[in-house]
Design a protein that fits this description.
The protein is α/β, with parallel strands linked by helices and about 425 residues long. It is about 35% helix and about 20% strand. α3 crosses α6.
Length: about 425
């Protein structure tokens, strides 16, 4: 069976840099940091007291009070981003809803809901009084379920959970469902809302996050010698993937083509990356093979680049092994330097950034670079501190998660 071509026809985002795709892209282009002191709770006693929050967020802006109370924040973000993408793609009333699916990604799901309910029970007299929305709000698939219910989409509907690779896995799953003819359109991407006491405390406990409390905006510094961990972010990124022929038939605008996707496992450690980068080598090779292109076709890699000492080095080693001498002709950047790390939502907003880099011919920067790391090849173009202009025909988006989950998605300009 011939596989169908798949294109991107809509984008949506709510991020620490802005609550629309346009605002998000402008923040990326200008090299804005989304980090600041945490406002969602009193973090004064935590080792890390800052994060990349969605600024000025109020659910009342998007939902009536009754509706908003039924959703955890990660689901609210998912619905907001998907609404923008659906409008952008012109899907309202313009498709067979039996053929539209929702495949979403989240690494954790309703962490705030779970935390609040457990605290309330612990403070009580032991009588089990739980909110009837506790379970529906907490479970990760409430995001895909709510998107489907709101829009009446009756196609394939599920969530992918693979830590920080979750959103990218949802995109690859959506690609393959459409390729195989199991859906014509899929709303995909991912969301996360883990800036809570449990989220900050838990990542502090495994020493994964930056503790640069005196200068939060410069704390996320991928590939810098003095990087000391990631900065936690929140939000959502959504893409509408669609069969090429279906998009053309309804006159949809096309942002880019999804050329392929690859998956692999480090099979090494539950939290630490394989320092050799072999799993990352494998995932990029798998993605390029699936896309039917060679390394020399790639112009830009939106790296996982979390700003951790081990992870950044392993990814750079892998890029050099896969791309060889051509690695010096690539643009490489980590947009997490601006958005922070959205965990399971990272692949969603970074896929949006990769598609926009193709559309606009602009590489978003890796900000906060001060000191070269002698362990990393300074000859590589990390797009430090300022955006760069170049034609981008092919972009690769990398995401890697705890448990050794690796995913790469390949986007390209629409081919003839």
């Amino acid at each position: 069976m011939a596989l169908r071509r798949v294109v991107v026809t809509g984008l949506g985002a709510i991020t620490p840099l802005g609550s629309t795709v346009a605002d998000y892209w402008e923040g990326l282009r200008q090299g804005v940091s989304g980090a600041d002191i945490i406002t969602r709770f009193d973090a004064s006693k935590f080792k890390t007291r800052f994060a990349c929050e969605v600024k000025g967020y109020s659910p009342d802006t998007y939902f009536d009070r009754k509706e908003g109370r039924k959703m955890d924040l990660f689901t609210q973000f998912a619905v907001i981003a998907s609404d923008e993408a659906i409008r952008d793609a012109g899907l309202e009333g313009n498709v067979d809803k039996d053929r539209v699916g929702v495949i979403w990604g989240s690494g954790i799901g309703g962490l705030r809901t779970f935390q609040e309910e457990c605290i309330a029970f612990a403070k009580g007299d032991g009588t089990p009084r739980f909110n009837p929305f506790f379970i529906p709000k907490m479970i990760a698939d409430s995001a895909s379920g709510n998107i489907s219910i709101k829009n009446g989409f009756r196609g394939p509907n599920f969530i992918t959970t693979s830590a920080c690779a979750s959103s990218s896995d949802s995109i690859v799953a959506a690609l393959n469902y459409i390729r195989a003819g199991m859906a014509d359109v899929v709303v995909t991407g991912g969301s996360e809302a883990a800036i809570t006491e449990a989220g900050i405390g838990g990542f502090n406990a495994i020493k994964a996050m930056s503790e640069r409390n005196d200068d939060p905006q410069s704390a996320s510094r991928p590939y810098d010698k003095d990087r000391d961990g990631f900065v936690l972010g929140e939000g959502a990124g959504a893409l509408i993937l669609e069969a090429y022929e279906h998009a053309v038939a309804r006159g949809a605008k096309i942002y880019a083509e999804v050329l392929g996707g690859g998956l692999s496992s480090d099979a090494y450690h539950i939290t630490a990356p394989d320092p050799t980068g072999e799993g990352v080598v494998l995932v990029m090779q798998n993605a390029l093979r699936d896309a039917g292109i060679g390394p020399e076709a790639v112009d830009y890699i939106n790296t996982h680049g979390t700003s951790t000492p081990l992870g950044d080095g392993a990814e750079v080693k892998a890029i050099q092994k896969v791309f060889g001498d051509y690695a010096y002709k690539l643009n490489i950047s980590s947009t997490k330097s601006m958005t922070g790390h959205l965990l399971g939502g990272a692949g969603g907003i970074e896929a949006v950034a990769s598609v926009l880099a193709i559309q606009h011919g602009i590489i978003p920067p890796t900000i906060n670079h001060v000191t070269d790391d002698p362990e990393l090849d300074a000859g590589l173009n990390f797009t430090f501190n300022k955006a760069q202009t170049r034609e981008v025909n092919v972009a690769v988006s990398n995401t890697f998660g705890f448990g050794g989950h690796n995913t790469s998605v390949v986007f390209g300009k629409l081919r003839d």
